[in-house]
Amino acid sequence: MKSAVVIGGGQFPSKAYPIHLISQADVIVCCDGAVRAYLRRFPERLPDVVIGDMDSLPGSFLKTYGGKWVKVTDQETNDQTKAFNWLLENHSDLDEIHFIGATGKRVDHTVANLSLLTEYAAKAGDGIRIDSVSDSETVFPMLDSGSFLCGEGRPVSIFSPDNTLKMKSAGLEWPTDNVSFDNWWKASLNRACADEVTLTFSHPSRALVVLG
Predict the structure, then answer these.
(1) 107 conformational bin, left if phi > 0, alpha if psi -120 to 50, beta if neither
(2) Which of 31, 57, 132, 144 has the smallest C-beta neighbourhood within 10 Å, fewest atoms?
(3) What is the mean pLDDT of residues 49-53?
(4) DSSP class of residue 34?
(5) By CB neighbour count within 10 A (0-12 exposed, 13-18 middle, 19+ buried), where does 128 fall?
(6) pTM for the complete prediction?
(7) In degrees, to the nearest 5, what angle opens at C-alpha 118 toward C-alphas 113 and 120?
């Protein structure tokens, strides 16, 4: 299994699981403003690239780590998306992409970064597992029916922008069968009543699953 992590400018993690994902990653990409937080925690391993428009860093960083920069001036995408696109273009053999530091600090950045996960999943196809991991949750996209292991009793929330989607569920304390996804809260704050949860979509769509 070949994995990559993208380090964003949100809250840098301190707990074991996200730190493990970073330490075991085959490829590390830092969004430009996040490289300082990354190097404070992992000074012994430089990121493979630092990507962005370089508007968040002083000249001293650019001089010291100049060989690692990939400058992308496109203002239509954020740095997280620039990093994702770079990975697809340069590492076609990836099995997993984990976004670390995509959440926290600013609510608008958090919402935007998480909403992009479904777009990344659609672009990457079935061969690459995509998620966002922080100290408090793991978030992953689903584009169609499927099952996932989460452990009985774990908090589970589901969000979808598709108000035509109907979703049957098994393994949740409060079934989603009659939920209308016409507002974000409608399938949030649920809980797994089995180790495995199955979601059956009425049609291919987009949804985010948040495991607390």
Answers:
(1) alpha
(2) 144
(3) 82
(4) G
(5) buried
(6) 0.92
(7) 80
